[in-house]
Design brief:
Elements (H helix, E strand, L loop, with lengths): L1 H48 L8 H13 L8 H9 L4 E2 L6 E3 L9 E2 L1 H18 L3 E5 L4 H10 L19 E5 L5 H16 L3 E5 L5 E6 L14 H14 L6 H6 L10
Parallel strand pairs: 2-4
Antiparallel strand pairs: 1-3, 4-5, 5-7, 6-7
Length: 268
């Protein structure tokens, strides 16, 4: 009788051990699948949340470099070449104003770009300020090959310093405009502003994900928008007559300076 009870106890003990092992396997194996599924869901959500109009691509980098080659612009190798281009006014300073500011970390020696790129920045910043009463921020402009090499050491997403997909910053046609901190409405406005310009081949924008900026390469053709159009002699006379009629209502330069609002509230 005792031996029978002992055998029953042993059988029950072994059954309990086996069930415990099975229960353990049951807990471990599905958890791996759960983690994988959760990871996929998070990745899918990130892709949905980050769905830019101007997605960075290999083709976009090719187009930026093709424009540089079309304009026969050099990729600026070092500080000496940069200073030479500045001295020849082939690169012009970007001017901070009520409508445009800089990332304080941007070296003043690199706050330069091509003239038509500055025209684009002026047009964009004025339109943006008119819409939102806020300024845009320039995070990056011209770079040298030396600077780009250093950048790539700690930023794996930076474009190479040479080749068919080299950074277009090296030619001075490109600026990075801060996107972090903009509302959805402001980002959408920027996208809508640049879309027709992109369709005309005047800009090649990208919305970078890791640096959270609008990377905008500006075509040399943008300069055509700022070229004065030739007018006939009759049109010139009419324009001069119209100007003379309006002269009494136009403030002189000194009058405008005296009436400027220089209070802190006027510089947001």
């Amino acid at each position: 009788m005792k031996s029978k009870k002992g055998r029953v106890f042993v059988v029950m003990f072994l059954a309990a051990v086996m069930c415990g092992q099975a229960f353990g396997l049951h807990q471990v194996v599905p958890s791996r699948h759960v983690h994988r599924a959760a990871g996929k869901r998070r990745a899918r959500i990130r892709r949905i949340l980050w769905n830019p109009v101007f997605r960075p691509s290999h083709d976009s980098l090719l187009r930026q470099n093709q424009e540089i080659d079309r304009l026969e612009l050099p990729r600026i190798q070092n500080e000496a070449e940069l200073e030479e281009l500045i001295g020849r006014q082939e690169l012009v300073p970007i001017i901070a104003s009520q409508t445009l500011r800089f990332d304080p970390r941007l070296d003043p020696d690199r706050r330069y770009c091509r003239p038509w790129t500055r025209d684009f920045l002026d047009d964009l910043s004025q339109a943006y300020y008119k819409q939102f009463h806020d300024s845009i921020q320039v995070n990056s402009a011209v770079r040298t090959v030396q600077v780009q090499k250093k950048l790539r050491r700690h930023n794996r997403n930076a474009a190479p310093e040479k080749g068919e997909t080299a950074s277009s910053h090296l030619a001075g046609i490109t600026v990075d405009i801060q996107r972090r901190g903009m509302s959805k409405q402001q980002v959408a406005w920027m996208e809508n502003y640049m879309m027709p310009l992109k369709e005309q081949g005047l800009v090649e924008p990208e919305e970078e994900r890791h640096q959270w900026v609008f990377h905008v390469a500006v075509s040399g053709r943008y300069a055509d928008l700022h070229q004065p159009k030739a007018i006939s002699g009759d049109q010139q006379e009419a324009a001069q007559a119209d100007q003379s009629e309006q002269t009494p209502s136009v403030l002189s330069i000194s009058d405008r300076e005296n009436n400027l609002d220089l209070s802190p509230a006027s510089f947001k």
